[in-house]
Amino acid sequence: MIDALAQAESAVAACLDRATWAADEQDLVTALDVAHRLEQRVAAIKLTLVRELDGRGTATAQGASSTAVWLRDRLRLGVGAARRLVELAATLDAAPVGVRDALAGGAVTVEQVRVIAETVDTVQSVAGAAAADKAVGVLVDWAAQFDAALLRRLGTRILDHVAPEVADAAAQAALRAEESRAARDRHVTLSEQPDGRLRLTGSLDTEAAALLRAAIDPLTAPAGPDDTRTPGQRRHDALADVCRLALRTGELPDHGGDPTQLVVTTTYDMLRQHLDTGTLDTGGHLTPEAVRRLACDAAILPAVLGSTGQVLDVGRQRRLITGPLRRALVLRDGGCAFPGCDRPPRWCDAHHIQHWADGGDTSLANAVLLCGHHHRHIHHGDWTVRLGGDGHPEFIPPAWLDPDQLPRRNHYHRRR
Ligand SMILES: [Zn+2]
Ligand SMILES: [Zn+2]
After folding, report:
1. Whole-angstrom distance, CA of residue 151 vs CA of residue 247
2. pTM reported for the whole predicted model
């Protein structure tokens, strides 16, 4: 086998040396088809090898806790990819021979074969081996026209074709199987990056997916005509907004005796002079601008240290805009006060117009309601905010945007 693979490898290496620029277009298309088919055939070999090694317990004999963990190290795969490889190898091993042949012949892709094997498995359990064999043929035919996602959808009605007498009962069983697969595979991985960021990966089951969408979709829309964030950035900010709201409810389980909140540590002098970075209790670092913005927000507990590191102030209530003061602010602003923004109050932070570290007090006259996006905008951008003669907030655009710097207001929340 190693000899055959070595031959194949040198044949592939020779292909890489061929110049593509001189080739005929039709030849390029044909070559692409062949390369794709080859990829599936190689995948079939790899899956067979994984299955055999898994069956022999090679990974545990070499000190790894499982074949997936061993593969992760050996092939430098992600955890999820390694686990899926081992699972697919086992599923294929148990599937009727026609399923494996379809992949080995390059007729279907790895993703398609996963769907076919799982669908056939369901058919076998509800309608028996004969129906399962028939299902293999139908699904492999369909796979010539449809991608894996569509194949999975069509597969839910496969019994209409191969065993109509049990189709309805089985459709329900398939849905349940799908659900339990989703429940089994559900996970969220949070991996700390060296630069303080967090890589978020995972797979949500149907219910959690619906909850997440219901929670973040309304917040993912652009916050106004000035919102230049990408959809990905808006989803990111929406997720942060949802967390901030959850923290603000005060109903999350306590964490070591303290109510759940985010602790930011910084020194008072440095906060005043906009110099120091802040440290989160998770060990991450923040810029001075971010620390000052977070210190505005009731959901965040700023721990301010003196020059020798003694704790001067751990988030005293009077500095945070909560209770009756927040209600008065909500009555006045009605939501994010930034011009053109429609975010309602529950998504808003109370921003100190003059920061408390600069001597600003905690009063209605020094506060303005801003959504997460516009709160960042005010702290990090060139806009400024003040209260107009009638006590309502107005925003001064930067000179590059409006040379006259005429104040603008939010007309969205005005009820009168
Ligand atoms: Zn602020
Ligand atoms: Zn806003």
Report:
1. 42
2. 0.46
Q: What is the pLDDT of residue 259?
A: 46
CA of 85 to the centre of ligand 2 (A): 45
Residues pairing with 311 in the sheet = 305
Determine contact, residues 247/260, Cβ cutoff 8 Å: yes
Q: Which of 307, 300, 358, 364 is nearest to 331 (CA)?
A: 364
Look-up: residue for tokens 């301010």?
Answer: 304
Gap between the Cα atoms of 329 and 367, Å rounded: 7
The conformational region for residue 334 under phi > 0 = left, psi -120 to 50 = alpha, else beta, is left
How far does residue 212's CA lie from ligand 2's centre (Å)? 21
* Ligand 2 center from residue 378 Cα (angstroms): 10
Tell me the pLDDT tens digit for each residue of 128-138: 888 899 999 99
Q: How far is the CA of 102 from the centre of ligand 1 (A)?
A: 60
Ligand 2 centroid distance, CA of 408 (Å)? 13
Among all bound ligands, the one having the nearest atom to the CA of 349 is: 1
Cα separation, 4 vs 228, in Å, equals: 55
| Closest ligand relative to 356 C-alpha | 1
Q: Which two tokens stand for residue 206?
A: 């149907």
Q: Which residues contact 67 (CB under 8 A, 6 or more apart)?
A: 50, 53, 54, 58, 59, 60, 86
Q: Write the pLDDT tens digit of every residue in 75-133.
A: 998 888 999 999 999 999 988 889 989 999 988 999 999 999 999 988 888 888 888 99
pLDDT band at 281 (very low <50, low <70, confident <90, very high): low
- Which amino acid, one-letter code, is at 380? H
128 alpha carbon to ligand 2 midpoint, in Å? 59
Helix (H, G, I), strand (E, B) or coil at 241: helix
Report residue 275 CA to chain centroid gap: 33
Q: Which listed ligand is nearest to 355 at the C-alpha?
A: 1
Q: How far is the CA of 357 from the centre of ligand 1 (A)?
A: 11
Between the alpha carbon of residue 221 and those of residues 106, 212, 224, 245, the distances in Å are: 43, 15, 9, 17
Compute, in angstroms, the gap from residue 273 CA to the centroid of ligand 2. Answer: 27
